[in-house]
Known about the structure:
By secondary structure, the protein is an alpha/beta fold. About 35% of the residues lie in helices and about 15% in strands.
Amino acid sequence: MSKKDKIKISIMIPCYNNEKVIREAIESALNQNYKHKEIVVVDDASTDSTVVIAQQYTERGVRVVVNPENLGIGRNLANCMTHAKACYVIFLCGDDVFADPNVAADVARIFDERPLLGVIDRPYYQFMNGHPGAVTRVDSDNIFISSCCPSGMAFRKMNVEGTSKIFIEMPVIVLQYLHKKWEWTRMNYDTVAVRIHPGGNTGTLSTYYTESPTKVYTEFLGKPFDYYPILIQLKCRAPQMVKDEIKAMIEVNPDCQRSFMFWLCARTATSVPSWVLRHLAAFYRHRISRRKAYIIKRGGVNV
């Protein structure tokens, strides 16, 4: 490969048991309009056909790495960095897709123009599996909230350490860049579409919830992190944790008891059955939030 054709950006696709959706993720990466890219699928010891499907793309230049053992989300994100050959890295989870074909080119250009830049954040929207269009969107100026979803996050490559703590797998990596005084910026359009598919998202698996999200976030940020809807999420996925999580919220921030949202979420999580909440969540996305959700296209057009 000549110097002119040198790979500049690595599109890293961390995945685990994504056999039903991995094709769409890989195809959206292949469709990026940027010549100087590589696409690397890093499988975290899947037990389904994810690897077999991914390897069908090796003839199109996709590289497939299979971990000998399951590392977990955070450690696999760090592992992706070690397998990237380019100086810039952008993540795309195995169940998500790029929302625009120019993302890789824009990321490379921004890094080229700003040598002190280490991290690029982005807004994104969520879609329901099998249904086109946005149902919700994430557009937070807080990079630690925004980066909870790894897809679309871009970095100047460096060695990082992963964490096994839940909910902060990517924020921990972001913090390592900020500690080293790297600057960060934010894209002005939705670069990725994040798929919601119950049973497919890690956050929908009861085995994911191994410790208190409130305590993990508070320890990480050094101050109370008040995200009360997590109580609803816990009721749907790990109901045995709800009461302890309410106690944790009060422990780290007694003032939360003055919040109407805290009491609404706490009362809902303790009194409404899990199966009812799951149906209500689906109804809300399909009938209510979908009407308010929009997509920010490249160029700043909302649709």
